Amino acid sequence: MILGPHDRRALGSRHWGRRSQAIKRNRKPLVRTGFLSVLALCLAAAGCSREAPEQQRAAPVVTVTTVTPQAIPFSASFVAQTESSRQVDIVARVSGFLDRIAYAEGELVKEGQLLFQLDPKPFQVQLDAAKGELLAQEARHTTAAANLKRVKPLAAQNAMSQADLDKAQGEFDASDAAVYSARAKLKQAELNLGYTTIRSPVTGFSGRALQRQGAYINAVGDSAKLSYVAAVEPMWVNFSMSQNQLAQIRDLVQKGQLVPPKNQDFQVELVLSDGKPYAHVGRINFADPTFSQDTGSFQVRAVLPNPKRELRPGMFVTANVKGGTRPNAVVVPQLAVQQGSKGHVVYVVKEDGTAELRPVLVGDYSGEKGILIASGLQAGDRVVVDGALRVVPGQPVKVAEPGAAGAGKAESPAKAAKSEDAAKK
């Protein structure tokens, strides 16, 4: 059957009418089901809200130290290097063949001890020739003196001319000068012969011989340097102080936070490379008046006794400069200071028993376990020493009584985490 346009529109209207009625019949069950689901969720949420609240964590037990300003000795540490107080290069003064090396290389030599011996025979010949020349000139001088003695009275009586007298006087003066020159040459020959025997000018440790036995030594060439001797008693210790360090010390003195010793008599104590302190104390005996253009620092030198020759030239040591006093200094145990993201911090227990995280500016170490606090703390502050791992800023803490069991023992991070889990349960 063929439907026209009007019939198709009528049929479509009846179809959509029946479909809308079915939707209306099915809508109520859907609304009722959604309402019940929402109601169940609300009841479940209400039931959760009625659970018991989480138990609060107990206040951590900490030990504290009360800040008490006190006077402490001033100390500044520098990396230093030892230097011989008198290191002498052994250099040949005359040229010749090296006959003998008369010392044990690297060993301690005494002042005046024989080190090298050059061949003395050519210099002995020169000395003998100089002696002969001196004798000849002395003979000429004797003849000239006798001739002048004869001419003078004759010239006074006009028996001889003035020219004869002048000639006799000239020969006498020339011979006298020749004798003087011959004596100087003799002295030079004696010195040259003496220079063939080379002795140590100081007591100290000898270096290795730079020339071997039988080598020709040229006094004006590189081969003239034979070795060196370094005196080690006393010993010098050199260290550098930067411009900033000097400015900080001056600022502390001006503020009254550092009292220098009388006459600036600072003491210097050494710590060797193995951590052992050196037994003797030294004094500063030189400070360079100018700063280095390369490093911006100036050199300071201390002198220390070295009777047992424990120090050798070139050793690296730690120089602790002491002698001043820091009045009203704040010192806390090193365990109390922690490194934060923006610097050093400590925990301070306030009067209400809560912990406060306070930034501080630290200075030098004080003793083996203390550290100087330049700013951030004041007298009467209670600083947490042990137990800081469980402290929360702004939360209460319990201060352990001195000598109580468990006081002074800081918990490890793992143990602290287990304690927090137990408290939550």
Low-confidence stretches: 1-17, 22-36, 38-52, 405-425
Alpha-beta classification: alpha+beta
CATH domain fold name of the largest domain:
OB fold (Dihydrolipoamide Acetyltransferase, E2P)
Name the shape in a single word.
elongated
Report the portion of residues in β strands: 25-35%
CATH architectural group of the largest domain: Beta Barrel
What name goes with the CATH superfamily of the largest domain?
Answer: RNA polymerase II/Efflux pump adaptor protein, barrel-sandwich hybrid domain
Order of helices and strands: HEEEEEHHEEEEHEEEEEEEEEEH
Helix % is 25-40%
The helix tally amounts to: 5
Give the biggest beta sheet.
Answer: 6 strands, antiparallel, barrel
Strand order of the largest sheet: 2-9-12-11-10-13
Distance between the termini: 81 Å
Domain count:
3
What can you see in these coordinates?
The structure is a single chain. The protein is α+β, with helices and mostly antiparallel strands. It folds into three domains: 61-69 and 328-424, conserved putative lor/sdh protein from methanococcus maripaludis s2 fold (Beta Barrel), CATH 2.40.420; 74-83 and 235-327, Efflux pump adaptor protein, beta barrel domain (Elongation Factor Tu (Ef-tu), domain 3); 87-229, RNA polymerase II/Efflux pump adaptor protein, barrel-sandwich hybrid domain (OB fold (Dihydrolipoamide Acetyltransferase, E2P), Beta Barrel). The chain has helices at 5-49, 121-156, 162-195, 243-254, 413-424, and strands at residues 61-66, 70-91, 96-101, 108-109, 114-118, 197-199, 204-206, 216-217, 225-242, 267-271, 282-287, 297-304, 316-333, 338-340, 343-349, 355-366, 370-375, 382-386, 398-399. It has a six-stranded antiparallel beta barrel. A hairpin with a 5-residue loop joins strand 15 (343-349) and strand 16 (355-366). The chain is elongated, with a radius of gyration of 50 Å. It starts with a helix and ends with a helix. The model is unreliable at 1-17, 22-36, 38-52 and 405-425 (pLDDT under 50).
